[in-house]
Design goal:
By secondary structure, the chain is of the alpha+beta class. The chain has 2 domains: 59 residues, Orthogonal Bundle (Arc Repressor Mutant, subunit A), CATH 1.10.10; 72 residues, Lrp/AsnC effector binding domain/regulation of amino acid metabolism (RAM) domain (Alpha-Beta Plaits). The chain contains 5 helices and 4 strands. The two termini are 13 Å apart. The relative contact order is 0.16. The mean pLDDT is 92.
């Protein structure tokens, strides 16, 4: 099974290499993917123009950055308010990930904060203080491993 079914084999090798090291030169990218520099340049530009590659970012160690407490917060909301809540929640302290979902909970969010007091403020003040939030469940992350997209 292809990890990136919309990409051909060359594009997939390029994307995997970029995920592993987004700072590599196009020459190094070409070498890693086993293609010519001209092919790597053309494919790289196409991957960006098509939106497959949307940018480059640094991986930050949250603990070393002073955010040692990580939690998943599951939220049930009044269905009509989801768009307004999305706009409001983009300003939540420590919010790293926000998804509106199906199933037992309407929303899943991942927050990284400095301590329990900061988490309490997010959950009790910001979330449960909203008239559109029906319930929350907080799950502490005890250990995690981030895997690169595609493996």
């Amino acid at each position: 099974m292809d990890v990136f079914p919309a990409l051909d084999e060359v594009d997939e090798r390029l994307v995997r290499a970029l995920v592993a090291d987004g700072r590599m030169s196009v020459s190094a990218l070409a070498e890693r993917a086993g293609v010519s520099r001209a092919t790597a340049y053309a494919r790289f530009d196409r991957l960006i123009e098509s939106g497959v590659v949307g940018g480059f970012s640094a991986r930050v160690d949250p603990v070393k950055a002073g955010l040692p407490l990580t939690a998943l917060i599951l939220v049930n909301v009044e269905q009509h308010a989801w768009q307004a809540l999305r706009r409001e929640w983009k300003t939540l302290p420590g919010l790293e990930y926000l998804a509106f979902t199906s199933g037992g909970f309407d929303v899943v969010m991942l927050v990284r904060v400095a301590d329990v007091v900061a988490l309490r403020d997010v959950v009790l003040v910001r979330l449960q203080g909203s008239p559109h939030v029906r319930s929350t469940q907080t799950i502490f992350i005890l250990d995690e491993e981030r895997l690169p997209l595609g493996g």
